């Protein structure tokens, strides 16, 4: 490519000198046409050289995976009371007592008030097959967000706790998260890059070629799944269902060959 550019530059200089030396002898239109022709040849030469350089490339896909443990849990639970028609107010009062009782129990177990979020209460009508209201359900949901994973599981996974407190709940779900995920992703990208380089070296060595520099890299989406899961998604996955997780990522890299 350097030779092509050098020839084009030399031709431009010669034409310019000729124009200055001969003055009006050389028609201006001819000069412009000549310059355009030479520039076109130069561009064509550069494109040909670049096309040849692109043929001397190697593309590989690096991969990295790592197991890790969540350090934050988010517990969603809805406490409820059933009410006959006309008894919603009484049921709401009983529900308030259940919620207070449950919050006090959490405090006694070492949870701080800032870890317990209370959402607005709601009342839903229960109807029969003919659309007639037969009862009501009043409920209120709480969200406990804490790094005390063991304590949360001891309560959430033990139904006897609610029986002893005399509390009825409808929904209970544990979601597990990792607060240092950005750092983990950076480390995994580094490992995927190293894996891509190692694969490229193996391939180039087997092909008796010399591996050049990496000139292109694109990371894939992260897949955060349950252990031993085979699920993947083009948009990435972040499973919150289990405390133990696996994270994986791919990295597509292209190298020059010499």
Task: Write structural notes for this entry.
With 258 residues, this protein is an alpha+beta fold. The chain has 3 domains: 2-54; 57-69 and 180-257, Translation Initiation Factor IF3 (2-Layer Sandwich); 72-176, Protein of unknown function (DUF541), domain 2 (Alpha-Beta Plaits, 2-Layer Sandwich), CATH 3.30.70.2970. The chain is built from 6 helices and 10 strands; from the N terminus they run ααββαβββααβαββββ. The chain has helices at residues 2-22, 28-55, 88-108, 149-156, 159-165, 181-206; strands spanning 57-69, 72-83, 116-118, 122-127, 133-146, 169-177, 211-219, 223-225, 237-238, 244-257. β4 (122-127) and β5 form a beta hairpin. α1 (2-22) packs antiparallel against α2 (28-55). The model has no long low-confidence stretch (mean pLDDT 88).
Mean pLDDT: 88
Helix proportion: 40-55%
Compute the number of helices.
6
What is the structural class?
alpha+beta
Low-confidence stretches: none
Classify the beta-strand content into a percent band: 25-35%
Oligomer: single chain
Instruction: Enter the CATH topology name of the largest domain.
Output: Alpha-Beta Plaits
The rough form would be described as elongated
Give the strand tally. 10
How would a crystallographer describe the biggest sheet? 5 strands, mixed
Which radius of gyration do the C-alpha atoms yield? 35 Å
The CATH homologous superfamily name of the largest domain equals Protein of unknown function (DUF541), domain 2
Label the CATH architecture of the largest domain.
2-Layer Sandwich
Number of domains: 3
Our measurement of the CA-to-CA distance between the termini, rounded to an integer number of angstroms, reads: 16 Å
Q: Element order, helices and strands? A: HHEEHEEEHHEHEEEE
> At the first level of CATH, what is the class of the largest domain?
Alpha Beta
